[in-house]
From TrEMBL:
This is ATP-binding protein. Keywords: ATP-binding, Nucleotide-binding. Coiled coil: none annotated. Residues 194-323 form the AAA+ ATPase domain.
Length: 559
């Protein structure tokens, strides 16, 4: 009952385990139970249904739901590898008659997506008896529950074709070094039965995620088992949407850092931890049942899962209390476990059209690099402008070709959307006002959900925060430096009282010095999202003047 699918929070209602009456092999039937009394197909999508009395619009057809559960189990459970006929699936609508769900049975595809009503209880029992004999099923159940968890060879072959053919990448310089270092480590780890940790560091746009996807595709082509994981919902959902577009199976290769609490030791060849600066102290939270709080650190879980754990990170992007993903932290812990650690720096390899010079200017401006603030005297490959108002900033972005987004420090309240599916204009500066991006993972009217704000065209016009911008890039970047950043005695300082981020509210959990460091990291992230250029507006007049004295380029031109 309530069988938890591996490496996910999803649960199947019932899995019946037994012996197949014809083959004598282990046989499993996944059953999705529905209390629905009435349902009908929806015109909104092939696998969607409308359920009587259920709020929230369309739902997934229960037969399609259970079919996907079966497919997922075959893709990730070693005990089912090479046994495609060991798993069956059925949806049982035990409160509905046939006429109550007229049209739903037409969507049944195969033996993993059967559909039965209470009117067809006899058929359901025959379906079960044809797949489960009267012999005890305890051994089959034990084999399922203790099965190693890793992508199957069939899934790896499929993923290799999908990722390698859809996403064509050319790795340059240190990117190729990192790629070959990981592939070599995989070969050595398997031959010598040892673990090697690879840490890849690089600033925004240095190609960390390109390396991750290239590795994923090549590893699958070679028949190696691997998964991709991050600690960011926005980033993971975008990876599922684009590299995984059109394929649920590819989407399932992109996990979260907290998916590996009970993963098998060295159960995979490679675990690619992208955005590893988002690693937290523990995978549990206040909602985790006491019985499941193991006390293990999240870093220990990630290091244990694969023979070659790969960490890709920019440690200047630690922006939340409790995030521990630093090079020193990963290295120190790995060495205490006796693991070999290798490093690759991508600091000299930046995105096409990006600017190493600009990133260094940002780091020194924010006190994240030695040497103090430096003048900006321009870069032919990257445009930087100062705006005198948020109106100028927005107009500058609107006039540019390509993708553009506005972001700001978390210095304004963030309201829930109105009942009419409109957003509240929370970010108010003088007579200019715009809403934050959508808070949650569902679209509001024409506004995209939070994790797609950076990639969907309708994201322009809302102001993004660090939690939705981190991990993404767009052509043109507009940044509002909020009133939590100002200048005193010629030095850039942070102002805690002006910050509205709930994560920073408690001085007990976030000291003033930690707040100062985190806010500087936040602005470093926001200021380095642009691929072709950045326009900056500072709310604080003293900071505007300070920046003007550092900039030896023309201001944004007024109409």
């Amino acid at each position: 009952m309530e069988y938890k699918l591996p490496l996910t929070s999803r649960r199947a209602d019932v899995v019946l385990a037994g012996v197949h009456p014809r083959t004598g092999e282990d046989s499993y039937v996944v059953v999705e139970l529905k209390q629905w009394s009435r349902a009908e197909p929806s015109e909104s999508g092939e696998h969607l249904v409308i359920v009587d009395g259920m709020p929230g619009g369309e739902m997934l057809h229960p037969a399609e739901q259970v079919r996907r559960y079966c497919e997922y189990m075959c893709d990730f459970l070693g005990v089912l590898s090479g046994k495609p006929n060991a798993v069956y699936g059925a949806a049982y609508l035990h409160n509905a008659m046939d006429l109550d769900i007229d049209g739903l049975s037409e969507l049944v595809r195969d033996e993993r997506s059967r559909l039965f009503t209470k009117q067809r209880r006899g058929e359901f029992l025959r379906y079960l008896s044809e797949r489960l004999s009267d012999k005890p099923g305890a051994d089959a159940a034990d084999r399922l529950l203790s099965s190693p968890v890793a992508p199957s060879k069939q899934l790896m072959a499929y993923a290799s074709k999908e990722i390698r053919e859809r996403e064509q990448f050319t790795l340059l310089d240190e990117q190729q070094v990192a790629y070959e270092l990981v592939m070599g480590a995989v070969d050595r780890a398997r031959r010598a039965d040892f673990k090697q940790v690879v840490v890849v560091t690089g600033g925004p746009g240095s190609g960390k995620s390109v390396i991750a996807l290239s590795l994923l595709g090549e590893l699958y082509r070679q028949g190696r088992s691997a998964l991709h994981a991050t600690g960011s919902q926005s980033f993971t959902q975008t990876m599922r949407r684009y590299p995984g577009r059109g394929s649920t199976r590819i989407k399932n290769l992109f996990k979260y850092f907290n998916s590996f609490t009970d993963a098998e030791q060295n159960g995979m060849d490679v675990l690619i931890c992208d955005e590893a600066h988002r690693i937290r102290e523990t995978s549990t939270n206040r909602f985790t049942p006491a019985a499941k709080r193991t006390g293990r650190s999240q870093l220990d879980e990630l290091l244990s899962t694969a023979r070659v754990p790969v960490f890709l990170l920019d440690q200047h992007q630690v922006v939340r209390p409790g995030e521990l993903g630093t090079v020193a932290g990963i290295e120190d812990y790995a060495r205490t476990k006796g693991y070999d650690v290798r490093f690759v720096s991508l600091d000299e390899q930046f995105r096409c059209g990006g600017s190493r010079k600009y990133e260094q200017w940002v780091l020194r401006l924010l006190g994240l690099a030695d040497g103090g603030p430096m003048e900006w005297d321009g870069d032919d490959a990257f445009e930087v402008q100062l705006a005198d108002s948020p109106q100028e900033l927005e107009a500058f972005l609107s006039a540019k070709p390509g993708t553009a987004r506005m972001t700001a420090g978390y210095c304004w309240p963030w309201s829930e959307p109105r009942s009419d599916d409109t957003l509240v204009d929370d970010v108010v500066i003088g007579d200019w006002a715009r809403p934050w991006n959508v808070k949650k993972d569902r679209a509001v009217g024409d506004y995209p959900p939070s994790m797609l704000w950076a990639s969907e065209p309708n994201g322009f016009g809302q102001v993004g925060c660090v939690y939705t911008a981190q991990g993404f890039e767009y052509d043109w970047n507009g940044v509002i430096l909020g009133p939590d950043l100002t200048v005193q005695d010629g030095q850039l300082v942070t102002v805690r009282s002006e910050n509205k981020d709930p994560a920073f509210k408690s001085r007990k959990s976030v000291s003033d010095s930690d707040f100062d460091q985190l806010v500087r990291n936040v602005y470093k992230v926001l200021l380095t999202r642009g691929m072709r250029g950045t326009v900056i507006y500072a709310v604080n007049p003293a900071l505007r003047e300070y920046l003007a004295n550092l900039m030896r380029v023309p201001r944004v031109q007024r109409d």
